[in-house]
Each structure stands twice: as C-alpha cells, then as structure tokens.
Amino acid sequence: MTIDLGSRPESLLTGHRAGNLEVRLARNEAEIVASQQLRYRVFYEEMNAHPTPDMAREKRDSDGFDPHCDHLLVVDLTAGDNPADYVVGTYRLIRRSAAARQGGFYTAGEFDISLIEALPGEILELGRSCVAQAHRNRPTMQLMWLGISAYVFHYDIAMMFGCGSLAGTDVEAAAVPLSYLYHFHLAPEDFRPRALSGRYVDMNRMAKESLDPRRALNELPPLIKGYLRLGGFIGDGAVVDEQFNTIDVCILVKTDLVTEKYVRHYQRERRGSGSA
To answer: What is the pTM of this model?
Structure first.
C-alpha cells in the first residue's frame, strides 16, 4: 500500500488531547495498518462480519479507498511506540479528491448519492468508524468528534455523509428503528440519497402512529444517535450488507452545527492557553 501524506497541512497533524489520549491524522503507513487491524478486530472478530481470505490471513480490514483517504486516529500516548498498541480509535475520511482517485465514494456502492455529489463546495464521506473495546466511552467519542470538527472546519466542508449500520441482517427484527428513521428523520428531497434499486429495502415497515419515538430512538446504535443529535438526516431505503452482517442506512449531516461547536471549543482552548 502506497499512501501520500505530503499534501496535508501540518496543523492537521497536531492533535487535541484529553488525558492520555490524542486525536490526529495518521502520519505513516504503519499507523494506517494499525487502524486496519483495529477495524478487523471490531468488525470481524467482535461483530461477526465475513472477511475475505486475504483479510483473514492478514487480520486487517482494507480496501482500495485506504491509500487515498485520510485516517483519523485516537492514540493512547501511554501505550508505547508500536502503532498496533497505541491506535485505539479510527475514522476514515474521504473528500471529493480522494473519491475521484478511487473512481467514486464508497457509499455509492449502496446508495444513489448523485444529489449529494451535485451540492456546491466540499463534501466529506465518513466511514469505517470503530474504537477499541477498552476505550468505548464518552471522552473518547468526544475527542474523535473534535478531530472531525477540526477537519471539517479546515476544509470548509458543507455536508458529511456515510453509511450507518444496524447490527444483523434481519429486516423485520429492525422494523422499529428503520420505521422511526423513515418517519422522523428522512432527508429533504433536494439532497436525499436513495438505496440502489437492486438493493433497496423499504424502511417504512410500521405506521408512524404505532411508534413510541423515545423507545425507538433508544434502540438505535450510539453512532446513528450521535448523528441525529447533530441534526442528521436519513436517506430513502436501507441496504442489507451481508459481508458486514449489518443493515445500512445513509446518513447526512449539514456541518453548520459541527463547525460552530469546534470554533467555540477552539476559542476556549486559546483563551485557556493565553493566546490572542
């Protein structure tokens, strides 16, 4: 795997810290390999996804997008010098330029995102998010989102999107959360993605009046709930991903609130350090 790390501003390689954790972009190929190993442990060993023979042999989750995109990392500063030990969280970030080098966005394999791609300005695909089991807590997730906010702020990104996953492939078992997302969080038509026709699963499986919104919200995975708290929207239709043993929905977040929160945090940091 050959990667290009030379074109990114140095400011994006300087992380924010919380206790012994730091968030920053991967600095070398060894750190990207460590992020792929973490993804393998979480997706394939914990969540029972189905690896290819090459993935199973190498114990890495990887694809053709990895050499072209940015890899956001949460690293444990007390875990030594081996990336396999200190990389404890990761998020894959794909902008237009990276998608062009790979021939399109990963999400386009499941959803028609042409309306998103037609939006003016920069857009960002988020994916392959995971955290090591010992670090799955609120401070780690807040640090990861601070890193994403800094990235969004730097590149002036107007829209984020990606696949959010419900565990398992039994659509009827997921009828409550799918119906809740359809009735309460469907994206506006002018930028609404739609599951590809050959993979489309109707999310409208229960009448709106039969749902308890609070209970349905509690059934959602933490990552999807986090996007919704940021004002996120959901595309039309779900997709069953047999390899990852999930039911995927397409999530969109306009970044106004994300960048505002980052600016406030950045201003507090500068005041605390005595900077002008």
So the answer is: 0.89
> How far apart are alpha carbons 172 and 119 in whole angstroms?
34
Report if residue 39 sits inside a domain.
Answer: yes
60 Cβ contact list (under 8 Å, min separation 6)? 33, 36, 37, 39, 40
Express each pLDDT in 60-91 by its tens digit.
999 999 999 999 999 999 999 999 999 999 99
Tell me the C-alpha to C-alpha distance, in Å, between residue 185 and each of 10, 228, 241, 257: 37, 8, 22, 17
The verdict on residue 118 lying in a domain is yes
Cα separation, 252 vs 137, whole angstroms: 24
Run of H or E including 252: strand 246-254
AA letter at 267? Q
Residue 116 CA to residue 187 CA, distance in Å, equals: 11
Q: Give the single-character DSSP code of 120.
A: S
Q: Tokens for 147, please give them.
A: 């890193």
Range of the domain at 62: 10-273
Tell me the per-residue pLDDT of 13-47, one tens digit each, with 9 for 90 and over.
566 888 999 999 999 999 999 999 999 999 999 99
- The number of domains in the chain is 1
Q: Say if 226 falls within a structural domain.
A: yes
| CATH number, residue 119 | 3.40.630.30
Give Cβ neighbours of residue 145 (< 8 Å, ≥ 6 apart): 226, 258
3-state DSSP assignment of residue 91: strand
